[in-house]
Specification:
Blueprint (H helix, E strand, L loop, with lengths): L1 E9 L4 E6 L4 E6 L5 H15 L17 H4 L7 E9 L12 E10 L6 E10 L5 E5 L5 H7 L9 E8 L2 E2 L4 E6 L2 E8 L2 H15 L7 H10 L2 H7 L3 H9 L8 H5 L3 H16 L3 E5 L5 E2 L11 H7 L3 H22 E4 L29 H7 L4 E5 L5 E5 H12 L4 E6 L5 E7 L2 E4 H4 L1 H15 L5 E5 L7 H13 L5 E5 L3 H12 L8 E9 L2 E7 L17 H21 L1
Parallel strand pairs: 2-23, 3-21, 3-22, 14-20, 20-21
Antiparallel strand pairs: 1-2, 1-4, 4-5, 5-6, 6-7, 7-8, 8-9, 8-10, 10-11, 11-12, 12-13, 15-16, 17-18, 18-19, 22-23
Helix pairs in contact: 1-11, 4-9, 4-10, 6-7, 13-15, 16-17
Pfam families: AAA_21 (PF13304), DUF3696 (PF12476)
InterPro entries: ATPase_AAA_core, Bact_Antivir_Def_Nuclease, DUF3696, P-loop_NTPase
Protein name: DUF3696 domain-containing protein
Length: about 575
């Protein structure tokens, strides 16, 4: 298993640089149009791409970014993404492996400008002793064309490997990507090496119960059964099977009718023809071996991969595979709730509109439906005093609604084809959302989304404070801090009250500074820089940038001066 511990993005839209440590709660603050949302958009682009297993999706269900040239910062050639990846220890038999790797992935517009593709990748372990680098520069178009012919690599992007552990890589070695996920390593080998490995792989299948449909098809394409049987004087076997209407592919029964020498000769001929292509393509997760001429038909030859990829190359495969696993896992865990949540309605939307990464819809339109569908599912959560609880989703949401002061009980109304309705009990009277006010309809989707997601989710929320009273904004900080300790939150906000409550909880020792990261976005020339503001154990920041929640303080100073001036005037 592998997982992403931190996330960095550079040259994305207006962003110069942003580094997210991804603790329990990350807060993004800054002025309007300072670039905060671009940080979230970079994560959403990755999430909607890797979860669909294909090309990099610029315009999808989570975010719409326009054309590839629109997201690369002016004057730059590519977007830079960096990840810190944790790798599990593995079994002792697998030998030493890095515990953490740092990955830098560049994404650039294609030559025709219609898609975004990987243009470079660099990987190194935490102490720098292992490294791997590949680039689109100096990539041979003839090689790429040859590698792309296989069905499994149709539409893939290939980067030429330049160095492995500080040394120059073999002359024609490539890493293949589907979207931004590395999938394979391709090497141009001596045909004699390929022939030996293919022969060994085929021998493991031929004449045994392990002969699969794909291997039989592959063998038939290399050495057709009918000509071979005719050549060795066993044409009567072919005539007999043809009369019975049996498939023209080799089958276990066909092969067992051959002598050992005849089978060996068949395998040698097939391996020789297969080796003529010279390309070996190996999945980065070490699960298959194949050749690019017909890469869709794969030999499962785990015992022979080491012959082609030993030592440092095997570790390169491990690092590429770990990154592929980590980015897919990360993308699958991302959940999102946008800033413009729906106005109060008596009836809300249908379940058919649901997207996995949008637990209550992008605007909270499925909140009532989720409460209805999952009304009996027990969820584990904590209250504002950080005490653990287990309750149904409506009960958990009701408890937090009561603390936040918008109601003390939730009841969902099933209105059949019309959809679902939500009533909140306020001061002993049950009311629908249109009778309570906008604040409740804005807050309820946040509570339901965060309480309903799976553990280890990464929940992105934009402007949760919209239409909320300052006291509720403060208490919302408690929700993000305590409600789901098994979830990571990234919250973009303008709320001084929310951040002040976080500082208070740290000062009260109700939470630890390392569980919270506050990032401040500010324009510096043509680029946005996002920098961390370190929190001390006393809940204070190590610095207060200009413009960071100082409007109130400035107004108070002006009020004091005005009052002092008026008093001085009256005395005079």
């Amino acid at each position: 298993m592998a997982s992403i511990l931190s996330w960095s993005v550079a040259d994305f839209k207006s962003l110069g640089q942003a580094d997210l440590a991804l603790p329990h709660l990350t807060v993004l603050a800054g002025a309007n149009s300072s670039g905060k949302s671009s940080v979230l958009q970079s994560i959403l682009m990755v999430a909607q791409s890797v979860t669909r297993g294909g090309a990099i999706i610029m315009n999808g269900p989570l975010v719409r970014l326009g054309e590839p040239r629109d997201i690369v910062r002016e004057g730059q050639s590519a977007v830079e993404l960096r990840f810190l990846v944790q790798i599990d220890a593995g079994s002792p038999s697998e030998g030493p492996r890095p515990k953490q790797i740092e990955v830098s992935l560049s994404l650039a517009p294609s030559l025709d400008g219609v898609s975004l593709r990987p243009s470079a990748i660099e990987i190194c372990d935490s102490n720098g002793s292992l490294s791997f680098a590949a680039t689109s520069e100096r990539t041979r178009s003839a090689d790429v064309e040859s590698l792309s012919k296989g069905a499994a690599h149709s539409g893939a992007t290939f980067l030429r490997v330049t160095t492995v552990s500080g040394r120059r890589a073999p002359n024609r070695m490539y890493v293949g990507f589907v979207g931004m996920t590395p999938t394979s390593l391709a090497l141009h080998f001596d045909p004699r090496v390929i022939e030996r490995v293919v022969a060994a792989a085929l021998s493991d299948f031929v004449g045994s119960e392990r002969l699969t449909y794909e291997v039989a098809q592959e063998l038939s394409s290399l050495v057709p059964r009918r000509p071979y049987l005719r050549e060795i004087g066993k044409a009567e076997l072919e005539e007999k099977r043809s009369a019975q209407g049996v498939s023209a592919w080799w089958t276990p029964k066909d092969l067992t009718s051959l002598s050992e020498d005849e089978r060996d000769a068949l395998i040698a001929r097939a391996a020789s023809r297969r080796a003529a292509n010279e390309w070996a393509v190996v999945g980065v997760r070490g699960s298959f071996f194949g050749l690019s001429r017909s890469v869709g038909h794969r030999y499962r030859a785990e015992g022979f991969i080491e012959e082609l990829l030993a030592g440092e190359y095997a570790l390169s495969m491990l690092m590429l595979g770990s990154f592929a696993e980590a980015i897919e896992e990360f993308g699958g865990h991302v959940k999102y709730l946008g800033p413009l949540r729906e106005e109060p309605r008596v009836v809300q939307g249908a379940w058919d509109e649901r997207v996995d990464a949008l637990p209550v819809g992008i605007r909270g339109e499925l909140t009532a439906e989720v409460l209805t569908r999952e009304k009996d599912r027990v969820t584990a959560f904590h209250d504002w005093n950080d005490h653990p609880h287990r309750a149904t989703l409506p009960e958990a949401a009701s408890m937090w609604c009561d603390y936040l002061g918008i109601g003390d009980h939730i009841r969902v109304l099933d209105l059949g084809k019309l959809g679902r309705g939500v009533n909140l009990r306020v001061d002993g009277t049950e009311r629908d959302l249109t009778m309570i006010g906008v604040g409740a309809s804005q807050l309820l989707p946040i509570l339901v989304a965060c309480l309903s997601v799976e553990r280890n989710s990464v929940v992105l929320v934009e402007q949760p404070e919209l239409h909320l009273h300052p006291s509720v904004q403060s208490k919302l900080a408690d929700f993000f801090l305590f409600a789901r300790r098994d979830v990571q939150f990234v919250v973009e906000t303008h709320s001084e009250y929310l951040i002040t409550r976080l500082r208070r909880r740290i000062a009260e020792e109700r939470t630890e500074p390392h569980r919270v990261q506050v990032l401040y976005a500010e324009r510096r020339g043509a680029a946005t820089q996002v920098r961390p503001l370190a929190l001390t154990a006393g809940g204070d920041f190590d610095e207060w940038p200009d413009g960071f929640f100082d409007a109130q303080e400035a107004d108070v100073r002006h009020i004091v001066r005005a009052v002092a001036a008026r008093m001085a005037k009256e005395r005079a």
